């Protein structure tokens, strides 16, 4: 293949009519070598010194090169860790813009830029070749991927039902999914999986990381893996472990196409805050060897060491314009080429942190919100990291929604029976206006959840008081210590009918509040079917039945109950108000009002009763059924009555002249509830009821 200087943009490996153009950014390199491998990936068949340089971008063009070519880079430059430079041309490096990786990483001392056995640690220099232990990048023709049609959906976030799940874990054990597709993108797009999601009423799957990621060496030594995938190394390559044996990356777009045809959007959990290269003692896979001082944030006065705002050893440097460009190009690629509908940004405070601290007007936020492609998709932040000032719930730009951990904790603690939670419960149920309304956002800014991948499953939340993480190999020290959970008398699974009945009601209580609250509900896959992780609240390394969805043990009554809740949410628009409602129950308008169990409007003194665990709420909305030229005022109302206490309590339905004839839509009592002549009904402990009525006036 003949080489010419080629062109700088686009970065990565780009097919054109004459061959393939290669382009790589490195500000501090002295030489960049493109390495070509044979089809096995084991033999370095040729290498080319990249002869083009344009504004710190190295580039060349190989005429006659085609899709399928395997390649990597060797980058020359100073090895001066004290100054932040870790160039080592003995290490084969992955292209940050690689669309596909072929082969597995095999942990070996040669993967490290320094002599693994030296007393000088990373100040030493290793001369062993890492190529035999590294996967290779493959040139991809994206034109064939774009030929797969994807029907647009554009479901508003306010009307969305999110379903957080793991590509492999959700499909691995489904007996109706073909063996070759289990654990893959193709499996997630298979008919049995889609039918299950449609039965529930899910509008979007939020997938744990699908960017190609590597396992950490310390996990491999324990016989474990990074199951969740929060250890990215290639921001444009689908994780090779989620492809079928054919390894075609178009399988991802095909999955999106099938889910869209079923009315289900795809949101990706993306990890741009750190990479798989770890701290200063970590391996050299890509960024560290290409230009460590540009791609990572380093301590200003000790550039040998990484800033670790992530807790994962390093922090990706989005303050650098070329690094920011990489992230933006990655996001656009997944939208325009792979067809996804949005992103959830892991540890998003890292992405918005400038040198002086977190800033909602940071370069990353400004770039993404002005981008003509990305401003149209769903943007969700995990609004914290472990760095200084990292907890930023409610402080993100208006284009973002945020995971609301205050909602999670309030709901858990309220239903557990903690004292003094009435005001906090009401604020979270109302949509958390105290966090999100100040900059003009509505309830959809709050992503409400009871559980997520990180922590107990819903079943375990009501089954275990303590974490049980011994399988992680860290002597049960890892994972959250306080889970706001309760076992109701016995730790773990039991045969006690009374305890199991309470647990069953509590799962339904929490799911009901989640689906009826203002804001956007997010279900953790398996919560609707009583899936257990055996008390493990940090199953990040459990790529086995602990972390997989068990399709043989599904609580179908709970599945049906969840589907009923989702159906109710879709039926009643007032559960998805666009703006925060600060009016009481309203005649012919949107309203939300709180009552005590005597049917009286809540007063300041009522809210201060710390031992009270009962409450009612009425949510109203204008039906808007009138035809053109006709004046018709209609109000639809829902009444939710809640008893989080340990005793049966009687409730009086609020007596409002325009809202009468309440009909019970849903309850979790042992028998059908009866409203007596005094509009009074009994609620057993740990239970709730939902009523509905409608009032219409025509002129």
From TrEMBL:
<dbReference type="InterPro" id="IPR004193">
    <property type="entry name" value="Glyco_hydro_13_N"/>
</dbReference>
<dbReference type="Pfam" id="PF02922">
    <property type="entry name" value="CBM_48"/>
</dbReference>
<keyword id="KW-0326">Glycosidase</keyword>
<comment type="similarity">
    <text>Belongs to the glycosyl hydrolase 13 family.</text>
</comment>
<dbReference type="GO" id="GO:0005980">
    <property type="term" value="P:glycogen catabolic process"/>
</dbReference>
<keyword id="KW-0378">Hydrolase</keyword>
<dbReference type="InterPro" id="IPR011837">
    <property type="entry name" value="Glycogen_debranch_GlgX"/>
</dbReference>
<dbReference type="InterPro" id="IPR013783">
    <property type="entry name" value="Ig-like_fold"/>
</dbReference>
<dbReference type="Pfam" id="PF00128">
    <property type="entry name" value="Alpha-amylase"/>
</dbReference>
<protein>
    <submittedName>
        <fullName>Glycogen debranching protein GlgX</fullName>
    </submittedName>
</protein>
<dbReference type="InterPro" id="IPR044505">
    <property type="entry name" value="GlgX_Isoamylase_N_E_set"/>
</dbReference>
<feature type="domain" description="Glycosyl hydrolase family 13 catalytic">
    <location>
        <begin position="164"/>
        <end position="569"/>
    </location>
</feature>
<dbReference type="InterPro" id="IPR013780">
    <property type="entry name" value="Glyco_hydro_b"/>
</dbReference>
<dbReference type="InterPro" id="IPR017853">
    <property type="entry name" value="GH"/>
</dbReference>
<dbReference type="InterPro" id="IPR006047">
    <property type="entry name" value="GH13_cat_dom"/>
</dbReference>
<dbReference type="GO" id="GO:0004135">
    <property type="term" value="F:amylo-alpha-1,6-glucosidase activity"/>
</dbReference>
<dbReference type="InterPro" id="IPR014756">
    <property type="entry name" value="Ig_E-set"/>
</dbReference>
